[in-house]
Amino acid sequence: MKYFFASRTNRLLSSPLRDIREMSGKEYFISLAEELPAEELFPFQLLEEAALSVFSSGPSALQYGEPAGYAPLREWLNNDWNVRKGIRTVSDQILLTTGTQQAIDLVMRLLLEPGDSVLVEHPTSPGCLEVLEMQGAAIVPVLGDQDGILPDLLEQHMQQVRPKLLFAAPSFSNPTGILWSMERREAVLDLCSRYGVLLVEDDSYGELHFDGLEPSAFYRKYPSLFALDTADQGGHVLHIGSFSKTVAPALRTGWAAGHPALIQAMTSVKRIADGQSSPMNQRLLYQLLAQSPFRWSDHLSMLNKEYKIRLKLMLELLKRPGWKGCSYHIPQGGMYLWVQLPEGLNSEALLKAALVKGVSFLPGTLCSTGTLDQRYIRLNFSHPGRDELLLGMNLISEAISEFTARS
């Protein structure tokens, strides 16, 4: 039978990500493309013990749970955010989701009609773009610099297109790794408040910072927009994130935090989407965080030290002759390095050559709506071990050298 798929699925079904993911499952293939943390750093043994503890509590652990998510875990988030981030919430302001991606999907389903305008930080997360395209949104990219989105351009867009919302990641955005300044955070939040635009703040990478600051000091210097949102009793920011990058992706546990009315409506949409996220996984995660020898702050510190080392290694490899002519901004955190290739190179063509060599990266074109220079690539420094990182970077540089020689 011939199937006629909706036109909004075109990008999704033709994405190079499909080829990358198929190749990534093969032995001896090195992926610098995907949004993966380092599995050797997962707290595997403690998770195993937490799982045994949850199962030993009895059959009720396997029963349906609340659509909003496991209440003790939501309360743990309340307390953790209050102590470390200066975010004050109550449980009915938090919805537990199946990762950050579902949080994005739920709010877009709730708010958007086909053709509605949505502002997005440019470049932005490929996953966000896929969700917006599936909802039929009119995506409007907003340019920024190393301090974040440019307020003057943002206000122009707000006046011209009357957007429903703005999607941004102020702390180590995917793919650029940019960390917004305090001044820029306040300016963008002020514009969203004045124009009545919901700001969806993706904080998936906010815990991964390499400056050595204690969490409380870091969040005083770079507070969440959700924490800053106090005008008119808040409600201008939806704060989303997950444990995928910090504990383990397979737990598929994320959150959306915002005004109770918005969270209640998103919970209703979630009932239709999947009823609820896995209560078992949420109980397991709570057991790990609150009832085991696991120390959250020590774990984050360990991740940040190791990822900082891997980033430093990648930066050293970029100094080699094969990467001559490339330019990049050194991030202070996150999982990615955003690299501009030399003049004359095309990231998607280079990817095909790299795949043949057994290595991948993410073409920057997947992080935009077609308005981005085709020379950008995103490199993941968190997932590959140090030996893999060395080999993978060398293989990509070989592909670059071959292209450069031909041109």
TrEMBL record:
One Pfam family named in its UniProt record: Aminotran_1_2
UniProt entry tagged with the keyword Transferase: yes
GO biological process: alpha-amino acid metabolic process
Protein species of origin: Paenibacillus sp. AN1007
Keyword Transferase in record: yes
Cofactor: pyridoxal 5'-phosphate
Top-level taxonomy: Bacteria, Bacillati, Bacillota, Bacilli, Bacillales
Gene Ontology MF: a single term: pyridoxal phosphate binding
Protein name: PLP-dependent aminotransferase family protein
Domain Aminotransferase class I/classII large: 50-382
Keywords (A to Z) from UniProt: Aminotransferase, Pyridoxal phosphate, Transferase
